From TrEMBL:
<feature type="transmembrane region" description="Helical">
    <location>
        <begin position="109"/>
        <end position="133"/>
    </location>
</feature>
<feature type="transmembrane region" description="Helical">
    <location>
        <begin position="42"/>
        <end position="60"/>
    </location>
</feature>
<feature type="transmembrane region" description="Helical">
    <location>
        <begin position="139"/>
        <end position="157"/>
    </location>
</feature>
<feature type="transmembrane region" description="Helical">
    <location>
        <begin position="80"/>
        <end position="97"/>
    </location>
</feature>
<keyword id="KW-0812">Transmembrane</keyword>
<feature type="transmembrane region" description="Helical">
    <location>
        <begin position="13"/>
        <end position="30"/>
    </location>
</feature>
<keyword id="KW-1133">Transmembrane helix</keyword>
<keyword id="KW-0472">Membrane</keyword>
<protein>
    <submittedName>
        <fullName>Uncharacterized protein</fullName>
    </submittedName>
</protein>
Length: 168
């Protein structure tokens, strides 16, 4: 690659994916039978938003700047919405983990499965122009990040399950 970044500044596939993901994800979260208290539900939703903001801002800003998000290097409304889009994904992670009552000895398989799903969604997001990798970054690095984050999420889930909301 010649180092020149070409961005599409029209409202098209990347923006539509974000909007549709937000709508569908929100509807799924609202339609699923309630498994958690409102407080815990909010925490699980915020896990995705926080994680998205945290890693995207660590990895996509100077001095490292491993990728740009959406149509240019500056932070825009669609960038914010792309972070909010992570909320239903994180909620589904916790919901499915709880629904199937995943035992600790099977947690690694669950985490691996979700890490592969996450990378698949990220690769599709790259293809449609949400992510623009640069400076040697690729989805292999994201896979490791997903493994770490989702492992922490399982640990966090176990803490909440063991102690309930009374400690938090």
């Amino acid at each position: 690659m010649n180092g020149i970044r070409y961005y599409d500044h029209n409202f098209n596939a990347n923006e539509w994916f974000i909007v549709i993901s937000l709508i569908v994800g929100t509807l799924v979260v609202l339609k699923l039978p309630k498994r958690f208290t409102n407080k815990t539900t909010c925490v699980y939703l915020l896990c995705g938003v926080f994680t998205g903001f945290f890693f995207d801002h660590i990895l996509s800003v100077l001095p490292v700047s491993y990728y740009d998000i959406n149509d240019n290097s500056s932070f825009q409304l669609m960038d914010f919405l792309s972070h909010v889009m992570y909320a239903p994904f994180s909620y589904l992670f916790f919901y499915i983990y709880d629904f199937f009552n995943i035992k600790p000895n099977l947690s690694l398989l669950f985490i691996l499965g979700w890490a592969f799903i996450s990378v698949g969604i990220e690769l599709f997001s790259e293809y449609i122009g949400i992510f623009h990798y640069q400076n040697g970054y690729n989805s292999y690095y994201s896979f490791v990040i997903y493994l770490v984050v989702q492992s922490l999420w399982v640990r966090f889930y176990r803490i909440i399950k063991a102690y309930g909301e009374k400690q938090f």
